[in-house]
Specification:
Residues 3-285 form the Aromatic amino acid beta-eliminating lyase/threonine aldolase domain. Helix content is 40%, strand content 16%. The chain is an alpha/beta fold. The strands form three sheets. It has a seven-stranded mixed beta sheet, with helices on both faces. It has a four-stranded antiparallel beta sheet with strand order 9-10-13-12.
Length: 345
């Protein structure tokens, strides 16, 4: 069975897991005046993440959802407006900050352009007409097919937001796939945002964890929100040690995942009833299989019968995600199954 449901399925290597045995553990919940805990492995990971993104500080979270949620709640008060794009993961899947019983924030959606990049004209229209507390972007962009936002567009968004005095938060769950695809350093990308969340538990292969990187002063506010959301941890070095391994060993190899996705997209471009959505730039492919007359759930069911696990996304599409445990041979098998399904009609 070839499992392309998500890169969250990636398994940690033995070498990664063995780092836990040497981790300098402590109680991360017992903090000093700067909010730092007593787990030295956590502190080391946070320092590395901050250095790599060019920020003053970083905060470890058990999940990306909690990281994004803590950051957004630290920026905003209940009732304030947050700009998100129409297909943003924070808006469609996480939803916590917009839940009327929890975050109580109001989403204001901006459009993506024909390249599935944030539309600057639409952003300006909103910023000129409404009082916005925070602007959120996503890089890579999940539901558009892993689109990478280039530095030129990041810079333009940053300058536009600065013009209106609005901070920018980036959901960079798969940021390092974008970094590798664009051939840039993480700090180059992150200088155009005030805060960024990235996951170590997806393509980077760690079993759990995400980090939010930002200024030192803002990190204190984020730590307060993390505690309110139940994110204070104890011997969290068991999370941090594999995370350190991931950031020091697994970034460059993300190019293999991006390459497998690009190969699959090229092999599928000529199908009659199944279309690759958007331009494949990283490790995600979104397919539109509506030409087969099947719902996304039905399509995924037929794929599973033939040995391919994939996931429905949005209302009418399916998603394939490539990661370390998926070889080129697995990729070829997935392509063969999708081509076979395309001939059903």
């Amino acid at each position: 069975m070839v499992d392309l449901r998500s890169d969250t399925i990636s398994m940690p290597t033995r070498e990664m897991l063995e780092t836990i045995l040497e981790a300098k553990l402590g109680d991360d919940g017992r903090t000093d005046s700067k909010g730092r805990g007593e787990d030295l492995a956590v502190n080391e990971l946070e320092d590395l993440a901050a250095e790599m993104t060019g920020k003053e500080a970083a905060v470890l979270f058990p999940s990306g959802t909690q990281g994004n949620t803590s950051a957004i709640l630290a920026y905003c008060r209940p009732g304030q407006k947050v700009m998100v794009d129409e297909m943003q993961h924070i808006y469609l899947s996480e939803k916590v900050v917009f839940d009327p019983s929890i975050g109580q924030l109001e989403p204001v959606t901006y459009k993506l352009d024909q390249d599935n990049l944030p539309d600057l004209d639409d952003m300006r229209r909103i910023l000129e007409s409404q009082e916005i507390a925070l602007l959120c972007i996503e890089n890579t962009h999940n539901f558009s097919g892993g689109t990478c936002v280039p530095l030129e567009r990041m810079k333009a968004i940053h300058e536009l937001a600065k013009e209106f005095g609005v901070p920018v938060h980036m959901d960079g769950a798969r940021m390092f796939n974008a970094v590798v695809a664009l051939g840039v350093e993480a700090r180059e990308m992150c200088k155009y945002v005030d805060s960024v969340m990235f996951c170590i538990s997806k393509g980077l292969g760690a079993p759990i964890g995400s980090l939010v990187c930002c200024s030192e002063a803002f990190s204190m506010k984020i730590r307060d929100k993390r505690k309110l959301l139940g994110g204070a941890m104890r011997q969290a070095g068991v999370i941090a040690a594999p995370g350190m391994y991931a950031l020091t060993h697994n970034i460059e190899r993300l190019a293999e995942d991006n390459a497998n996705a690009a190969y699959a997209a090229e092999q599928l471009k000529d199908l009659k009833n199944t279309k690759v959505y958007g331009k494949v730039m990283s490790n995600i492919i979104v397919l539109d299989a509506n030409g087969l007359g099947l719902t996304p759930g039905e399509y995924c069911g037929k794929a599973a019968e033939k040995g391919l696990l994939i996931k429905p996304v949005l209302k009418d599409k399916v998603r394939l995600v490539f990661y370390r445990d998926i070889s080129r041979e697995d990729t070829e098998k997935a392509v063969a199954i999708i081509r076979e399904l395309d001939s059903l009609r």
